[in-house]
Amino acid sequence: MKIFVGQKVTGENSEKLKKFSNKIIKALEKKGHSVYCNLFGKGIDERSPKEQMANAFREIDSSDIFLAIIKNNKKSERMIMEIGYVIARGKRLIVAIKSKFKDSTYIPEMANDVIIFESDRDLLNKLKEIK
Fold first, then answer.
1. Could you read off the pLDDT of 59-93 as tens digits, one per residue?
2. Which CATH number characterizes residue 111's domain?
3. What is the residue-wise DSSP string for 63-125?
4. Pick from 33, 38, 35: nearest CA to 8
């Protein structure tokens, strides 16, 4: 399966996010999945927000699963648009949300599957179950 990993980027520590995203990618690839994460997209930093969204939509179209990772209660406009697109296209949506924030958003209610996690390590372990 091809999995698109979406998460809040703006306002987050870029280096920590990239390091953790690499762990997510490796965990999913180890289970045989192909993974796209826009943090590592070619030329992504040189693109306008409109071009970045168009690229994300193309990647979503070629993906089987959209994995939305929610680690805090700060909203991400980009991820909300991506999720709306995923739902409109009838793609499988998996929401992985930190337990203390599960009641702060209705996004999990829109998902096909929900993963509730306590820590980064817990999330990495639970991602191994995605089929």
1. 999 999 999 999 999 989 999 999 999 999 999 99
2. 3.40.50.450
3. -SEEEEEE-SS---HHHHHHHHHHHHHT-EEEEEEEGGGTTS-SHHHH-SEEEEESSHHHHHH
4. 38
CA gap 90, 64 in Å, rounded: 10
Query: What does DSSP assign to residue 61?
Result: H
Q: Which amino acid is at 60?
A: I
Contact between 3 and 67 (Cβ < 8 Å): yes
Residue type, 90: G
Residue type, 50: K
Which domain covers residue 57, as residue numbers?
2-127
pLDDT at 3: 98
Angle between helices 14-30 and 120-127 (to 10 degrees): 30
Intervals of the chain under pLDDT 70: 41-45
Count the domains in the chain: 1
Gap between the Cα atoms of 12 and 16, Å rounded: 8
Dihedral sign, Cα of residue 81, residue 126, residue 102, residue 39: negative
